[in-house]
Specification:
Layout: E1 22-33, E2 36-47, E3 51-55, H1 62-69, E4 77-82, E5 85-86, H2 92-101, E6 102-105, H3 117-128, H4 134-147, H5 163-174, E7 181-185, H6 193-210, E8 213-218, H7 221-227, E9 230-235, E10 238-243, H8 245-249, H9 254-262, H10 264-267
Parallel strand pairs: 3-8, 3-9, 6-7, 7-8
Antiparallel strand pairs: 1-2, 1-4, 4-5, 9-10
C-alpha cells in the first residue's frame, strides 16, 4: 500500500503506553534501492517496554528499518504505525516531535568531531528545546553522562575517546531528550569483548533506569541473547521468525538455523578452547 500524502499526515502526540502493548508496527513494508529489493511485505511489531533484537546478515536491511522509522529513509510502500498513527507520510517538520520520543544510537557513534563531549550531548536539547535555560542544559548533560558512567567528561573532545567511550557519549546524546524509544544500530560492532559486555549492560540498564523500549539491530549473537526479550530474524527480504531467545535456540526455521549454526562459536566460546 503506497504511503499517504505528506500533507495529510496528522500531528504526532505521544501517549504513555501500557507495558506490553503494541507500540510500533511495520506493516506490509516494501523497499528497494535501484534494482536491489530490501523488503517484500515485511511485517513486525514492537511492544512497549521490551528490547527487540533484529538479527540478520550484512546487507539484509536491518539498519534501513530503523532509518525508515524516524524518517531518514522512506519505504516504497506499506505503513509504519507508531501508537496507531501512520508516520510514513510525515514531512521532515512533522518528524521533529517523533524524534523527541525516538532516538537513534548510530553504529559509529556519529559524534561531531569539532564539538566537545558536553556540546555533543547538548546538541539535541538545543535542537528540540531552544528555549531551555543554559543551566538546565548543563544539568541534563551532566545527568546523562553520569548515567552512562562518563561523569565529568564534558570538556573532552571525541578524538580523546576510545571506541567504547564514543558509544557511551552517543548514547548520552541519544537519551538527552528522555526518549521513550531507543534505536541501536550495530552497537557492539568493532568493539573488544570487555567493551561489548559493558555496552550490553548499558542497553539492559536503559530499560531498568529509563523504562525505555529498545530496538537493537545486530549480527552479534552473544549480544543478541544478552539483551533481547524477543528476537526477529530478517532474511530473504522479510521477517522469517519472531520469538523469545529460547524459541530461537530451538528454531527449525531454515534461515534462523543456518544463521545460528554459522555463528555457533559465538554462542559456545568454550567449544573453541
Amino acid at each position: 500500500m503506497p504511503f499517504a500524502s505528506r500533507q495529510e499526515a496528522p500531528t504526532f502526540e505521544f501517549q504513555q503506553p501500557t507495558p506490553g502493548e503494541q507500540l510500533i508496527h511495520f506493516q506490509h513494508l516494501q523497499k528497494s534501492f535501484g534494482p536491489k529489493r530490501v523488503y517484500d511485505d515485511l511485517e513486525l511489531d514492537v511492544r512497549a517496554g521490551e528490547t527487540l533484537v533484529v538479527l540478520g546478515g550484512s546487507g539484509t536491511g536491518k539498519s534501513v528499518l530503523l532509518k525508515c522509522l524516524i524518517g531518514l529513509q522512506r519505504p516504497d510502500a506499506g505503513r509504519i504505525l507508531f501508537q496507531g498513527r501512520d508516520v510514513t507520510g510525515f514531512s521532515e517538520g512533522q518528524f521533529i516531535p517523533v524524534r523527541r520520543h525516538v532516538a537513534m544510537v548510530f553504529q559509529g557513534a556519529a559524534l561531531f568531531d569539532s564539538l566537545s563531549v558536553g556540546e555533543n550531548v547538548a546538541y539535541p536539547l538545543r535542537e528540540h528545546y531552544p528555549d531551555m535555560p543554559l543551566s538546565e542544559v548543563r544539568d541534563r548533560v551532566a545527568e546523562k553522562l553520569e548515567l552512562v558512567n562518563l561523569p565529568g567528561t564534558e570538556r573532552l573532545m571525541p578524538a580523546d575517546l576510545s571506541g567504547g567511550m564514543k558509544k557511551r557519549v552517543g548514547l548520552a546524546r541519544a537519551i538527552a531528550t528522555n526518549p521513550e524509544v531507543i534505536l541501536w544500530d550495530e552497537p557492539t560492532t568493532g568493539l573488544d569483548p570487555v567493551t561489548t559486555q559493558s555496552i550490553n549492560a548499558m542497553i539492559n540498564s536503559m530499560k531498568t533506569k529509563l523504562g525505555s523500549t529498545s530496538i537493537v539491530v545486530t549480527h552479534d549473537l552473544v549480544s543478541a541473547f544478552a539483551v533481547g526479550d524477543r528476537m526477529a530474524m530478517l532474511a530473504n527480504r522479510r521477517i522469517v521468525q519472531v520469538g523469545t531467545p529460547g524459541e530461537f535456540r530451538r528454531s527449525k526455521v531454515p534461515e534462523v538455523r543456518a544463521f545460528l549454526d554459522a555463528r555457533r562459536v559465538e554462542l559456545e566460546p568454550e567449544a573453541a578452547s
